[in-house]
Amino acid sequence: xxxxxxxxxxxxxxxxxxxxxxxxxxxxxxxxxxxxxxxxxxxxxxxxxxxxxxxxxxxxxxxxxxxxxxxxxxxxxxxxxxxxxxxxxxxxxxxxxxxxxxxxxxxxxxxxxxxxxxxxxxxxxxxxxxxxxxxxxxxxxxxxxxxxxxxxxxxxxxxxxxxxxxxxxxxxxxxxxxxxxxxxxxxxxxxxxxxxxxxxxxxxxxxxxxxxxx
Length: 214
Fold this sequence. Notes:
Helix content is about 30%, strand content about 20%. The chain is built from 6 helices and 7 strands. Helix 1 packs across helix 6. The protein is globular.
């Protein structure tokens, strides 16, 4: 059902790979992204497992990127191998050159291979909605015209909707895709210290929703 359609190599020569369902007829294109932050591997587990499920008769085309930050995941660190927080590295109006801490957004916007890859995906595929899987806040955060979608996800997962994450996020992917490009963009924050199988039980219906109903 899935085919690798786009890939790149990171600084550490790990692969970033985008997979796509091969259904020629579809209503919408949905992009699902895992592991912006290397110490948040839950999305990698969920998306890889989801790609092995039966998706016969799906309504939408799914674009799945199980792991955007393989270098960070290998090191169990938030940033990539250049110590850049990818979720602060996008060329948004509010991007800032900040101190080199765990939220460092790079020396300039879109400086990172991983960031460029996602920008190319958006330009090439023009998704109708985006779900980015993070941890650990156990909320459904959203950017752009995604309030109704976030509320639907909340009903499925029982994670509460929270429009504001609670702190500034200059150069974030949500700002880039949701606010500035008007693509409904949901940041699904999973709970931490929860077994993967429990996360699967909670979130599998949500993933099915994007395949069959949205």
